[in-house]
Amino acid sequence: VQNLQVAVEELKFRYETVLNENKKITEHKCLEIDKVRDKTEAELKKLEHVCDLMKAAEAKQQKLMFWKRICAQKCKTLRELQVQVDDSSVTFTGSLSLEEENCTIRKKYEDLKRQLGKMEFQNEELACQLRKEDESLQCSKLKLEEKIVEYKALTRQLESALEEGRKMV
């Protein structure tokens, strides 16, 4: 009986030791899980910011396309006006002398030339802006993809930590 009591006491001691170790391991795993969860949440916040940047970049790209269309329309109108000026110079008849007609046509031509220059300058500015927006969009897209990969890795890490915790328990 005494031997059995000693064996029972020894088993009780071992059982308490195993329980304490299990409790420590569980607490450690919980801490690890919390760390991974915090890390994942921080990464998600960063990803949300990148998503917002992507949306803003897409909106700006649409705006640039809109301005490009307007610029193209203005260039077309300017060309049409130039054709009209050329046509009217051929058929222009009136009381003005040839020199006055010439002077008027030159003024119109210079005005149209200036307008065309302005339009081309605006077009170049818009094209430059569009290139910058495209670069920004590509950069944001790459960042988003990197963050998604990191997020997936952290998710797998969190799942494996949870699985290990469950196994330990």
Automatic annotation (TrEMBL):
Family, as annotated: Belongs to the ODF2 family.
Keyword annotations of the record: Cell projection, Coiled coil, Cytoplasm, Cytoskeleton
Recorded coiled-coil stretches: 1-57, 109-164
Main location: other
UniProt entry tagged with the keyword NAD: no
Example GO BP: negative regulation of cilium assembly
Source taxonomy: Eukaryota, Metazoa, Chordata, Craniata, Vertebrata
InterPro entries: Odf2-rel
Protein name per the record: ODF2L protein
Gene Ontology cellular-component annotations: centriole; centrosome; ciliary basal body
Record localization: Cell projection, Cilium; Cytoplasm, Cytoskeleton, Microtubule organizing center, Centrosome, Centriole
Lineage top rank: taxon: Eukaryota
